[in-house]
Automatic annotation (TrEMBL):
Belongs to the peptidase A31 family. The keyword Hydrolase applies. It comes from Phytohabitans suffuscus. Keywords: Aspartyl protease, Hydrolase, Protease. It comes from the Bacteria. The keyword Protease applies. GO terms for molecular function: aspartic-type endopeptidase activity; enzyme activator activity. This is Peptidase M52. GO terms for biological process: protein processing.
């Protein structure tokens, strides 16, 4: 089974860098058979990363109307996207990538999205304290799921308050 973890975001836009921060934490762990990648969220690059994958886990920042920075949303492909807009400075649209993959027959067997609520996407380096704490928890959870080889245990819609 081929697994891919993709961290979407821009580490030069503070909390928007949560996706790359999570995958950076995963790179130091023993996760055989797992491909780990950063991406700016551009549709073509996402589809290339998903190619031939059975399970794809995507980590991205999300801005919502009344944010609780560090709150983690989990969604599977069978559930609608997080109510909010992507925090990426590139205006990436994960929904468009999913729809194009569906049209082209390139969807993985399972696509999981972890979206972390953020507040500060101004220019600069470093995550805010609550988003950094969420990145630590999320990296540990994703690593555990990948070691179990059972992403279905988190396949669903949940929200974690910190």
């Amino acid at each position: 089974m081929n697994h891919v973890v993709v961290g979407i975001g821009n580490e030069f836009r503070r909390d928007d860098g949560v996706g790359p921060a999570v995958v950076a934490r995963l790179r130091g762990q023993d996760l055989p058979g797992v491909r780990i990648a950063d991406c700016d969220g551009e549709t073509g690059r996402l589809l290339e990363l998903w190619r031939d994958a059975d399970v794809v886990i995507v980590v991205d920042a999300v801005r919502v109307e009344h944010p609780w920075p560090g709150r983690i949303h989990r969604r599977s492909l069978r559930h609608p996207a997080v109510a909010g807009r992507p925090a990426s400075s590139h205006g990436s649209d994960l929904g468009a990538a999913v729809e194009l993959a569906r049209t082209l027959g390139l969807l993985p067997r399972l696509l999981l999205l972890y979206a972390v609520e953020v507040a500060d996407t101004s220019f600069g380096l470093g995550l805010s304290a609550p988003v950094a704490a969420a990145a630590d928890r999320l990296a540990a959870e994703v690593a555990a799921v990948l070691r179990d080889r059972d992403p279905s245990r988190i396949d669903g819609t949940t929200r974690e308050n910190v």
